[in-house]
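Re: Re: ligand-bound prediction request (bumping)

Still looking for help on this. To restate: I need the protein modeled with zinc ion bound, output as structure tokens. Inputs repeated here so nobody has to scroll up.
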Amino acid sequence: MLGSAARHGALSVSCAMLALACSADPSAPAPSVAGPTDDGTATPAPAPVPAPAPAPAPGPGPAPAPAPDGPPAALTCLAGHYGATPVGSAAAWSLRLADGTTHAWDDGLPKTFDERLAQPDLQDTLSIPYAVGAIAPVNAKDHDPGRIRHDRMFKSAFGDAEAAVRARLVDVAFVGQTVKFHTKAAAALARVSTRLEAAIANTPSLSAYVTGTLGGTFEWRPIANTQRMSAHSYGIAIDIVVSKSDYWEWDKTPQGTFTWTNRIPQAIVDAFEAEGFAWGGRWYHYDTMHFEYRPELFDARCKL
Ligand SMILES: [Zn+2]
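Reply:
Sorry for the wait, this slipped through. Here it is.
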């Protein structure tokens, strides 16, 4: 276990750094401005009787009010991927999750990158566009598409406790071995495996990146002293072969600097991205073993 723990210890920082918690429900109804006086005992004044509506004037009359705008397209898109429902109005859109909680689309707060990581609204999770294509160094500071996650949305979609997620894990054949993955993402991972096997048939050297000792899939793990969970906690992430991978925390100097590094071949990345898996090698805070199922990042309708 020590060896495993040590290996995962390195990973745990990665995963812990990636996971996020939701903020307090910002969509809770605001207290009514009407109501009793301070001691709470006053009898409320009777509600004013509305004046009768005037009879409609003859003629064309005023133009009908325009229909209220619907929810932002990206919110509707996100809702579709996570079994949630847009609610509200143009003044304040929110997302009602399957667990009954409601969360702000845009909380209106100015945030630093670290604050968006720690307390994102739903819009923040889509705020950094994910781009596929030729692998390229990521030098733009904090360009981490997909690293901002809304933890409560994940809990609602995949399970809010270890046992709840574990009960929804299924076996997936992954390039010659069996791994546990969330039932909602299992078919996508199986398709990745099919793509990888085809790529390996053409280029056998690719096998070394995705067979043998993998970094792992499911592991329920909150960040220390927080309620924020790693993406691996939900059974939607896989770390491929660790010895072929690079991770910013391993490379960080005592001064805190690091330089994007990657050894994972393009064909491996392409196979995952084609099935909706975001790659940690697309991040300034690179984690090149890490792939997680985030179909919303690949859905054009979810673009802000
Ligand atoms: Zn990972």
